[in-house]
Amino acid sequence: MLNSNAPMTRGSRQFEFVRQQMQAAPRCTLAVWHHPLFTSAQNGPNASMRDLYSLLDAGGADVVVNGHDHV
């Protein structure tokens, strides 16, 4: 199991795990984790997720679900 509090920046263990999964991805890709890149809530955006979002976008992910800000 991957640590949800670890950074997901390029080269991190979690980033590399997602990159490998995207290379072998089925036709529909769903990614779910806690901290969002984009949010309008008081906690603001989480810039540490930018690399992961870019990877998922480049890989053609269909859906990304996050839920940190309870608004």
Provide a descriptive summary of the structure in words:
There is one protein chain. The protein has a two-stranded parallel ribbon with strand order 1-2. Helix 2 links the parallel strand 1 (30-32) and strand 2 (63-65). The protein is an alpha+beta fold. The protein is built from two helices and two strands.
List keywords for this structure.
71 residues; alpha+beta; 2 helices; 2 strands; 28% helix; 8% strand
Mean pLDDT: 83
Low-confidence stretches: none
SSE order, one letter for each helix or strand: HEHE
Gyration radius, in Å = 12 Å
User: CA-to-CA gap between the ends?
Assistant: 28 Å
Helicity, in percent? 25-40%
Strand order of the largest sheet: 1-2
What structural class should be given to the helix and strand makeup?
alpha+beta
Dominant shape: globular
DSSP helix count? 2
**Sheet bearing the most strands, described?**
2 strands, parallel
- Residues in β-strands, percent: 5-15%
Q: What's the β-strand tally?
A: 2
Describe the SSE topology.
Layout: H1 13-23, E1 30-32, H2 50-58, E2 63-65
Parallel strand pairs: 1-2
Helix pairs in contact: 1-2
